[in-house]
Design a protein that fits this description.
With 238 residues, the protein is α+β, with helices and mostly antiparallel strands. Helix content is 47%, strand content 13%. The protein has two domains: 2-121, no CATH class; 127-226, Homeodomain-like (Arc Repressor Mutant, subunit A, Orthogonal Bundle), CATH 1.10.10.60. α5 (127-137) packs antiparallel against α6 (142-149) and α8 crosses α10 (202-213). Residues 228-232 have low confidence and may be disordered.
Length: 238
C-alpha cells in the first residue's frame, strides 16, 4: 500500500510504501529526486531519464523533492546523480549517514523522522528554477521559458543540468508524459489525454511512452488498474 502527504519541505511530499508483493510497475521519470529509507539504508534517487524496476517487496519511506529543489540540499548538481541510486554516505559522509540511520532506526515514525532530516538541510527554492518548472509544466516552450527567466537558451541548459539533471527539453518531455499519464489513470481516453497534455496526437504520446518509460500505454494502464495504488515516480529502487 502506498500513501503520501504534503511535506513541510516546500514543494515536497512524504510517502511510504508498506512491504508486500503488490508493486510490479516500473518507476517512471518524473523530474523529481528522493531521499529514501529502507531496511536500515539511506539512499538518494537521482533524476531519471528512463524507467527503473520497482524496489521489490521491502517497505520504503521517502521524501520526494520537487524538480530542481534537491541539489542544494544534497550539496551537488543533479546531473551527477542522473539515473543513479546512491548511498547517502557517499554524499554526506559515512559518519553522518550512520548517525542519521541510527536516528531513523530508533524513531517511532520513520516518515516524520526522515522529513525532519530533510527540513534540517533544506534551503529556499530557487525562484528561477521554480519558474522554469511552472512554465514547462504548463506546456510552454523552452525558448519562452528562457526568455521568461532572462537567460539565453544555452544558459538555461547549463542551469537545468545542475538543477534538474538534464536539459529543459528533456524536463519538458518528462513533465508532459506525467501530465498524460495522470489523465490516463483517471480514465481519459489515450488520444484525449495526449492532446490535453500537449502531445501532437496519440501516436506522439505512444512514442514518448516507449522512449521514456520503456512500455506501452496499454500495458501501463492495465498494470495501474491491477495494482495497489502507487505513484509513477516514487523512486523505490536501490
Amino acid at each position: 500500500m502506498y500513501q503520501e502527504s504534503p511535506s513541510r519541505v516546500p514543494g515536497a511530499v512524504v510517502w511510504t510504501r508498506t512491504a508486500g508483493p503488490g508493486v510490479t510497475r516500473p518507476v517512471l521519470p518524473d523530474g523529481c529526486m528522493d531521499l529514501l529509507w529502507s531496511q536500515g539504508r539511506l539512499l538518494v534517487a537521482g533524476p531519471d531519464t528512463r524507467a527503473h524496476p520497482p524496489g521489490g517487496a521491502a517497505a520504503w519511506t521517502g521524501v520526494r523533492f520537487a524538480p530542481g529543489t534537491a541539489p542544494a540540499l544534497l550539496g551537488l548538481p543533479a546531473h551527477e546523480l542522473r539515473d543513479r541510486r546512491v548511498e547517502l554516505a557517499d554524499l554526506w559522509g559515512a559518519a553522518t549517514a550512520r548517525r542519521l540511520a541510527e536516528r531513523l532506526g530508533a524513531a517511532a515514525d520513520a516518515a516524520a523522522a526522515l522529513e525532519a532530516i530533510a527540513l534540517e538541510r533544506t534551503v529556499p527554492p530557487d525562484p528561477l528554477t521554480s519558474a522554469v518548472v511552472r512554465h514547462l509544466d504548463a506546456g510552454g516552450t523552452v525558448a519562452a521559458a528562457a526568455d521568461a527567466a532572462g537567460l539565453s537558451t544555452r544558459q538555461l541548459h547549463r542551469r537545468s543540468l545542475d538543477a534538474f539533471g538534464y536539459g529543459p527539453k528533456t524536463l519538458a518531455r518528462i513533465l508532459r508524459l506525467q501530465r498524460a499519464l495522470a489523465l490516463v489513470r483517471r480514465g481519459v481516453p489515450y488520444g484525449d489525454a495526449a492532446l490535453a497534455a500537449g502531445c501532437a496526437d496519440q501516436a506522439h504520446l505512444a512514442r514518448e511512452m516507449r522512449a521514456l518509460a520503456g512500455s506501452t500505454l496499454r500495458s501501463y494502464d492495465a498494470s495501474a488498474k491491477s495494482e495497489t495504488p502507487s505513484p509513477s515516480g516514487s523512486s523505490t529502487t536501490a
